[in-house]
From TrEMBL:
Keywords: Membrane, Transmembrane, Transmembrane helix. It comes from the Eukaryota. Its main location: membrane. The lineage of its organism: Eukaryota, Metazoa, Chordata, Craniata, Vertebrata. Pfam families: ST7 (PF04184). This is Suppressor of tumorigenicity 7 protein. Residues 59-73 have a biased composition (Low complexity). It is a multi-pass membrane protein. InterPro entries: ST7 (IPR007311). It is found in: Membrane. Belongs to the ST7 family.
Amino acid sequence: VSMFLNTLTPKFYVALTGTSSLISGLILIFEWWYFRKYGTSFIEQVSVSHLRPLLGGVDNNSSNNSNSSNGDSDSNRQSVSECKVWRNPLNLFRGAEYNRYTWVTGREPLTYYDMNLSAQDHQTFFTCDSDHLRPADAIMQKAWRERNPQARISAAHEALEINEIRSRVEVPLIASSTIWEIKLLPKCATAYILLAEEEATTIAEAEKLFKQALKAGDGCYRRSQQLQHHGSQYEAQHRRDTNVLVYIKRRLAMCARRLGRTREAVKMMRDLMKEFPLLSMFNIHENLLEALLELQAYADVQAVLAKYDDISLPKSATICYTAALLKARAVSDKFSPEAASRRGLSTAEMNAVEAIHRAVEFNPHVPKYLLEMKSLILPPEHILKRGDSEAIAYAFFHLAHWKRVEGALNLLHCTWEGTFRMIPYPLEKGHLFYPYPICTETADRELLPSFHEVSVYPKKELPFFILFTAGLCSFTAMLALLTHQFPELMGVFAKAFLSTLFAPLNFIMEKVESILPSSLWHQLTRI
């Protein structure tokens, strides 16, 4: 060993440390990229998935898995339900709002995944099995599957042109003569919906098209309502016509809200909820809450919350944060953190703080947008409850309502971070809700555009292998630099280090030589 060390030159040490630094640096760059994209360490993932079974790690868990299969299935069902993607009840209009943003900025605000989910929703709500019997509906059934926007718009125009064809029906008046009654085929309501959503470039144009869709959709709904009990085919058609009518009326109410006719919008939403109380999938009450907050009708907002903020009903950021806003409104104008620290919180202030903590626990991403610590983007057409996408959708429409209440944002700023001291870490249990789902980051990255930095909760700690490779890269790079600058001195240090490293081995070899006979040791060395 000593002879080998004496033959090594400083160039060898420079090459050794430089190569080690380069390799560890490449591993560090790859690990960091993999962690930023997938949220986990590649080396750790490979170790868990491939090396652990080889070392027998699976056997230790097999008994636990068999004993707790029911609990695992329940938790899996819970995680699947919490990671379900929902239609955004306040989604914008593609032609009048999303496309205008693209024209101005050159950026696409919607992802392919988001638009694909919308296409699936349209096929579910606006089509049925009997569409092939009507030429216009058959065309629209294909249009909802079309990816190209211009092809969809052309198909909608084609469906409307087909309905311009007139059918003549013979009506005998006298035995010797007949007259021809001209009868128009019913207009295609879904074609007007597509044009209003994607072709109209202003909200006023979209409203005009939706009014035409309402006229056609109302007629189809009344006809199918009379025939719904004649068979399953008529029942499915009536269900489709009901979805079309509710969608049109809701979008008309949203048009009125956009155009400043807020009271008219509130009336339309209330009438729609009374007419179709069982259709909760559209979440019309969230549109109603936003419009009532714009009117500053806080008593009506409280009445709506009393109905929908129930323990048996699914929650949303709109419900939780609106409840917090109403309670904060009662105390925020006189709230002072210095005075509260001296005298303590009053009962009303405590209720407001608890409501804020409840809202933040449900969706911890919202405060950064309300406090303008993160920039807003256009909300997507679908949201993930408790995720960053829902936070963007809520803050986009409700930030103005929080600003209108004096001191509400100040109270939120002083209290929202206290929520995280109440939640068990590492989120194995929730405080007021189920534990925060771990799948939100992946789903939000699919829903939100690439130019937006997705908010992640909880903040993930850097994996051990990233820290290890960073330290190894820095250490070897420093050794390479020192060896290059001071070759003789570093050569002495390297030889001393290696001699010390091999000292136990030399000691063992000396002991073995002293114990074994010299003839036996000579034969072993020859072998």
